[in-house]
Amino acid sequence: MLIYGAGGHAKVIFRMLIEAGFEVDAVFDDQSETYLFDKKTIPYNPHVFPDQEVIVAIGDNGARRRVKERIFHKFSNIIHKSALIDSKVSIGEGSVVFQQAVIQADARIGRHVIINTGAIVEHECELGDFVHVAPRATLCGNMKVGENTLLGAGCIVLPNISIGKNCIIGAGSIVTKSVPDNVTAAGNPARILTY
Q1: Are the CB atoms for 77 and 93 separated by under 8 Å?
Q2: Which pLDDT score is estimated for 32?
Q3: Residues near 160 by Cβ (< 8 Å), separated by ≥ 6?
Q4: 96: domain CATH number?
Q5: Coil, helix or strand for 105?
Q6: How crowded is residue 135: how many other Cβ atoms within 10 Å of its Cβ?
Q7: Considering 12, 46, 75, which residue would you say is the last residue of a domain?
Q8: Is 123 assigned a catalytic role?
Q9: Which of 47, 73, 112, 123 is the catalytic position?
Q10: Over 70: is that where the pLDDT of 11 sits?
C-alpha cells in the first residue's frame, strides 16, 4: 500500500494500515523530505510500485483534490475495524473511515471522503466528493452535503437539510436549516458568517 502525505492525518492512516496487516511500501510527499514513522518520504513518481494502490492522506479538502488529480496509481479505501458500517452503504474510491465512526443504511459516501474518528452519518445521507466529516460530527438522517465541504468537529446537522459545496461548518455548530454553496456557517443555531 502507498500513502501520499506525511502530516498528522497521514500518521493516523499509516497506523490504520499497519494495524490492518498492510505493508506501507512508500510514502509520497512533494513538499519536503521527511519521515513518516520509519519511512522516508519521496516525491510522487507513477513508476514507483505502479501496481500498488494509494491513499491520499491529506485532511485539507482542496489539497486532497489537487493531489488526486496528479496521481496515476489506483486509489484504495481504508476502513478501521472498529467502524460500524451498514451493508447497504456505498463508499466511493479513495475514502477513509476512521475509528468508531458509524455509517447507517442507504448512506452514499462520495470519492475521497474522510469520515473521521467517532463521526456519525445516519441513514440516507449523501456526501459529495472530497467532503471531510470531522471527529464526533453527527449528520442526522436524509441530509445532503456538497463536494469539498468541511463539517467541523462535534457539529450536529439536523435531518432533511442540505449543505452546499465548498462550505465550512464550524466546530460545535448546530445546523437547523439548509446552507447554500461557498459559505462559512457556525454557532447554535448555525448562522452564515461569510459568503
Answers
A1: yes
A2: 75
A3: 141, 142, 143
A4: 2.160.10.10
A5: coil
A6: 17
A7: 75
A8: yes
A9: 123
A10: yes
